[in-house]
User: Fold these one by one.
Assistant:
Number 1:
Amino acid sequence: MQGQKRALVCGAGGFIGSHLVNRLKGEGFWVRGVDLKYPEFSGTTADDFVIGDLRDPHVCRDVVDRRFDEVYQLAADMGGAGFVFTGENDSAIMHNSASINLNVLEACRGRNTRRIFYSSSACIYPLYNQLDPDNPKCSEDSAYPAAPDSDYGWEKLFSERLYLAYQRNNGMEVHIARYHNIFGPEGTWTGGREKSPAAMCRKVAQTPDGGEIEVWGDGKQTRSFLYIDECLEGSTRLMRSGFSGPVNIGSEEMVTIDQLAGLAMSIAGKKLSIRHVPGPLGVRGRNSDNKMIWEKLGWRPSQPLRKGLEITYRWIEEQLAQAKK
Ligand code: NAD
């Protein structure tokens, strides 16, 4: 259609990417998605969906075959604590994600793409500012001196700099978000790459009332969690603003992991006991700091954690019911 805006979503088969494709379609975009796989839980709404490996520069050049109005680069080799913090996947994470970012940027430069969004992570923040669970520091300017606690975080930090360098030297307009624990329906909920909200909902849904669930660590580690719809709202607002970031996109409603478990139990209407077991943990405390996003975009997330967790819990319950059939 003439005049229709065009968007490219890299990582469109993943959790955030597949939701983003739906959103952009709803806004009237022509959308091309690219990923190693189709979305796991429902069909894609993209106009064109390319199965391709973005580590390959030829694939990147093929998918960036025109000037897109908006390019969202979400593809990464990633997962929850069980994938990122064990150390077993570090070389794959660094090699795969860095290759994707190097290739996508170069392909976009070749096509004079102006506007490109990159999803960085709260995992870039230094370990030394996140030792106190009640008082973590994650303001954007606290990223340096750099000391992320994982190679996943180091790759994200490198890639932030890569995007900013392309902006500086190649006339591109980049927009960088540091996401803080995004969750919602159609996110990975089992298999080892799932994040804590989904894992907690699954454990609670699988356990009969009065039973026991396992929680990694002492349960006092803190995090905040952002529902997918607010993540997309923040991402598209950032993309269309005059602000490059990096900026936090996260919730400021910090809870302990035990409180998260308690919330899932209360949604389920169950009373379960918690057994704390050793497991990969990540930093001791983390919370979004939303001063900058509020100042630059006049918007910040506001939905209570419980609301998004209710929707996610019901969705995971359904998945479990279907898996039993
Ligand atoms: P996801 O794993 O569901 O999606 C990433 C997608 O990238 C997957 O579908 C995967 O197949 C695809 N991919 C990986 N390697 C590829 C390759 N070589 N070629 C093509 N596609 C490839 O993850 P998500 O939760 O949707 O996260 C999206 C982005 O946001 C990622 O960059 C992630 O690091 C970042 N992020 C997410 C969170 C979160 O809480 N979900 C937090 C911080 C940052």
Number 2:
Amino acid sequence: MAEKKTVWTKKDMLGLEYLSKEEIELILYTAGSFKEVTTRQIKKVPALRGKTVVNLFYEPSTRTRTSFELAAKRLSADVVNIEIETSSVRKGETLIDTGRNIEALKIDIIVVRHNCSGAPNILAQNVKARVVNAGDGWHEHPTQALLDMFTLKSRLGHIDGLKVSIIGDIAHSRVARSNIWGLTKLGAKVTVCAPEMLIPDGIEKMGVRITTDINEALDDADAINVLRMQFERDGALAFPSKLEYFKKYGITAERLNKCKKNIVVMHPGPINRGVEMSSEVADGKNSVILEQVTNGIAVRMAVLYLVAYAKGVE
Ligand code: CP
């Protein structure tokens, strides 16, 4: 997975919109080295010894939070998980005050997930600690897109020129936005496919092809990234029923059999089985869904390491 290296100079990692092609490649390259560490019997290196990482998650998470915690621990950092439900956030403390108070405890990196788009950017402007975006509203989920790209590259050898279709609830998806930024910067041809109500206005300006026809999205695709229907974010209002969505857009073995033989099937999780895809597909031979989760640790190790030692940042 070797790539031409550049130097990381950014204090924070807030989204793939803000990164150059070379910076994205540097993260993927660095993740390639850390991937080897995660397969050792003793899965630990001293790269972040003496540093402290705080996980500040205002929204639920299984994969991202656990993965960031493991990534930090694999780098020998100390890790603190703040439980929002039992924190002073419940007494009305603002994000900036929470961030500044955490910083007063002499920590180094805050990993933040927030329901408001742009919350990590605001936090980053108000603390000296490094800030890493673990997903903000409908805006970006950069480490998810990075691990998706890392998985694609591991499977298919390259990203440049790949045809990748992102299928599902594009309107409410930070995963879609980060994937579009990242994949197009690395030269992939991206198609987004959804019911009309779930395609946001202006998405074509991001350089993607748009279709509402699932067959068009699957035809010729080297990889598909199937998004979760976000019922907690009004996604359910966009389609009459889960069954109808599944009939029109669900990825089934029958649909997959008409695709390229080695098509890569991704999903960021959590999956609504029988809505976005059948269990046969989710657990089938083309699925790399659990590989994505595994690769998340190496990718997040790379991000934590690069921001911790950003050149020219105090
Ligand atoms: N893919 C993802 O963000 O999953 P979690 O919500 O479980 O972190």
